[in-house]
Design brief:
Layout: H1 16-19, H2 27-45, E1 47-48, H3 50-54, H4 56-65, E2 72-75, H5 82-90, H6 125-139, E3 145-150, H7 157-163, E4 173-179, H8 190-200, H9 202-215, H10 220-238, H11 241-245, E5 249-255, H12 259-271, E6 277-282, H13 290-294, E7 301-302, H14 322-336, E8 340-344, H15 353-359, E9 364-366, H16 371-383, E10 387-393, H17 394-397, H18 401-409, E11 416-420, H19 437-442, E12 448-450, H20 455-467, E13 473-476, E14 500-503, E15 512-518, H21 523-535, E16 540-544, E17 547-549, H22 553-562, E18 563-569, H23 577-587, E19 597-600, H24 612-618, H25 623-645
Parallel strand pairs: 2-3, 3-4, 4-6, 5-6, 8-9, 8-10, 10-11, 11-13, 12-13, 15-16, 15-18, 18-19
Antiparallel strand pairs: 1-7, 12-17, 14-16
Helix pairs in contact: 2-4, 2-5, 4-12, 6-7, 8-12, 14-15, 14-20, 16-18, 21-25
Length: about 650
């Protein structure tokens, strides 16, 4: 039923079933309203803007043509999913994006039946959509699997691994290649759009199927020649030969902002017996919002902004970010040493390597979204005498763990891992949290693993890593600004495996009461807790261990035997510093007179997105929680002593 002309069309659409009631002539207006709604919402919340603006028309067309949620629509990465969320029953909550208790910035299964598969890491969509397609085929259900994947995500090998196995899905699998950088396609014009409609149409496909059946009756050489002629003719006119070789019927390129082109092609592919199909859609990142279109990054990720001017709300300058401190420190190392080089997996700006690119463009290698290749490539560089830094987010390094083990650790190659976004990351939530790197790296033989307590320590650790040629070494640091500590004019090479005492508790009865062993940037909270404990008459020593592997056994042993309670604290999951300290203490019999070690680490859960300070409070890793743990341990020990005496 057509909407009243005075009523915005978007107000009449809560779920895709409502969208499918509209005549095609109203879809343009709906897309315009959807784009405006998204801009208004992200202006209030911040988030990923440019990629969502680029797929507004595609989102409308997909939900209009396909029977979602029965047809499973899988968005790769999920940066572009905000318009999808608005059209799938979440418009009322869209201004809670990335806020505590609000909508996720990515697709999420628990959030909506229209999110059949959770995303946030790249290049997973085709594999997942293939799984849905095959499952429906096996169970006799009618639904299709539809993957929307960007041209950047196609640099990852996983996408091709999935495509290589797609034949079994037949026409139930459809891949939408969203090309928003003109990196694959020639310019889109009327001819290519006409050809796309032609080769996806039922008459063409039926004629092609008839020709194929006839060719099977021909002698084998003639049949092979006919098949190659068909592929060559379509490849010559439209491109897509690579996808054809992988078993896909290629359609495109088509204009991803022209609904009159999108709708008929999608309908043709939906109804075709041919498959699997790949539709090559060309879009413009930031489309329809002038400030985004004019920006170099197309407003990929933004703070809150003024919708009229596009001006983003700037946070107070404060201290430099850990990423910037690392970038400058690495650039200085490269100035001193021609062997220093760096590898990034499609994140040159995110990891700060754009600073090194400006100074030494021939020594930075952006390998695309290919973390596995990045690590083994770095191993090859190290084996030939270079000093490579593999700069990568903690959550993305997980994608290359086999290469870390097999190609780096076993061969004891001096690859330097600069691990950004370690610990909790705020609005990006569980998918981007760097919770596990200490656990999965410190368990490996040959590795050195360290974490700076502040920016000055990060400078020292970058220098230490540059000089470490006897095996792999990793240092982890958080997202966001540092503490504002003065940076060293000359970096210092830290002794491997040695920590430092940053606060000595007053000595009573031959020792202090409390020792806090900190790894990383929880040191500030440990010092606050020490002040509070001292005020309670509980002398407290604070150590910055710096290294989780190798541990400073001598320092830890001394603190355990001279203090009544020992607390370890870290911004990582179980299995990290606390586990290593407990193992060392157990091996040496240091706990035989009664356990007095308490470990504080991230909870055994995937934490929801929120402001980082609130996340760490929820995780129990702030000064009040340290004090509470100390007091509980003292009460426990005291009760144990009374029971033993009784």
């Amino acid at each position: 039923m057509p909407a009243n002309s005075a009523t915005p069309l978007l107000d009449t659409v809560d779920i895709p079933a409502d969208l499918r009631k509209l005549p095609p002539t109203q879809l343009r207006q709906l897309a315009d309203e959807l784009r405006a709604e998204m801009i208004e919402a992200v202006g209030q919340t911040g988030g990923h803007l440019g990629s969502g603006l680029g797929v507004v028309e595609l989102t409308v067309a997909l939900h209009y043509v396909f029977n979602t949620p029965d047809d499973k629509l899988v968005w790769d990465v999920g940066h572009q999913a905000y318009p999808h969320k608005i059209l799938t029953g979440r418009r009322a909550r869209i201004r809670t994006l990335r806020q505590g208790g609000g909508l996720s910035g990515f697709t999420r299964r628990s959030e909506s039946e229209y999110d059949p598969f959770g995303a946030a890491h790249s290049s997973t969509s085709i594999s997942a959509a293939l799984g849905f397609a095959i499952a429906n085929k096996m169970s006799g259900q009618p639904g299709k699997g539809i993957a929307v994947i960007g041209d950047g995500a196609m640099s990852a090998g996983m996408a091709y691994e999935a495509m290589n196995n797609a034949n079994a899905a037949g026409n139930r699998l459809i891949v939408i290649l969203n090309d928003n950088d003109m990196s694959i396609a020639p310019p889109v014009g009327g001819l290519s759009a006409y050809l796309a409609r032609l080769v996806s149409s039922r008459p063409f496909l039926e004629l092609r199927d008839l020709a194929r059946r006839l060719s099977r009756r021909l002698p084998r050489p003639l049949a092979q020649a006919a098949r190659k002629t068909d592929e060559f003719a379509r490849g010559l006119a439209m491109g897509g030969t690579l996808f054809e070789e992988l078993g896909f019927y290629y359609v495109g390129p088509i204009d991803g902002h022209n609904l009159d082109q999108l709708i008929p092609v999608l309908e043709n592919v939906r109804d075709a017996a041919e498959g699997p199909c790949l539709i090559h859609v060309v879009t413009q990142k930031g489309k329809g919002y002038a400030p985004a279109e004019a920006a170099a990054d197309k407003y990929h990720g933004v703070q809150k902004f003024n919708v009229v001017t596009g001006e983003q709300v700037k946070s107070s300058p404060g201290a430099p970010s850990y990423t910037a401190v690392f970038a400058n420190a690495l650039a200085s190392e490269a100035d001193r040493d021609p062997r220093v080089c760096a590898i990034t997996a499609a994140m040159p700006a995110g990891t700060g390597l754009d600073r090194l690119i400006a100074a030494h463009p021939d020594r930075v290698f952006d390998v695309g979204i290919a973390e596995q290749h990045a690590v083994t490539f770095a191993a090859g560089l190290a084996a030939q005498g270079m000093r490579p830094f593999c700069a990568i987010y903690s959550t993305f390094l997980q994608r290359a763990y086999d290469q870390v083990v097999h190609d780096v650790a076993i061969q004891n190659l001096p690859v330097r891992f600069a691990i950004d976004r370690a610990g909790l990351v705020g609005a990006d939530g569980a998918t981007h949290a760097g919770s596990f790197d200490v656990t999965y790296l410190a368990s490996l033989p040959n590795f050195v693993v360290m974490a700076p307590a502040d920016e000055a320590e990060l400078v020292h650790m970058t220098h230490t890593a540059a000089l470490h040629d006897t095996g792999p070494i990793a240092f982890r640091y958080p997202r966001g600004n540092g503490t504002g500590v003065a940076l060293p004019a000359v970096p210092e090479a830290l002794p491997i495996g040695k920590g430092r005492i940053v606060r000595a508790g007053s000595q009573v009865s031959g020792g202090g009461k409390i020792a806090i062993l900190s790894l990383g940037t929880r040191l500030g909270e440990a010092l606050k807790a020490a002040d509070q404990l001292d005020a309670r008459g509980l002398p407290t020593t604070v150590a910055d261990l710096r290294f989780v592997k190798p541990l400073d056994d001598e320092l830890i042993r001394r603190l355990i035997v001279t203090h009544d309670v020992v607390i370890t604290i870290e911004e990582g999951a179980i299995g990290g510093l606390g586990a290593h300290v407990l193992t060392m203490a157990s091996d040496e019999g240091l706990t035989d007179n009664g356990l007095k070690i308490r470990t504080m680490r991230l909870p055994d859960a995937f934490q929801e997105h929120d402001a980082p300070d609130r996340q760490y409070d929820q995780a129990g890793l702030t000064a009040p929680h340290i004090v509470e743990n100390v007091l509980k341990a003292l009460r426990h020990n005291s009760a144990g002593v009374h029971e033993a005496r009784a």
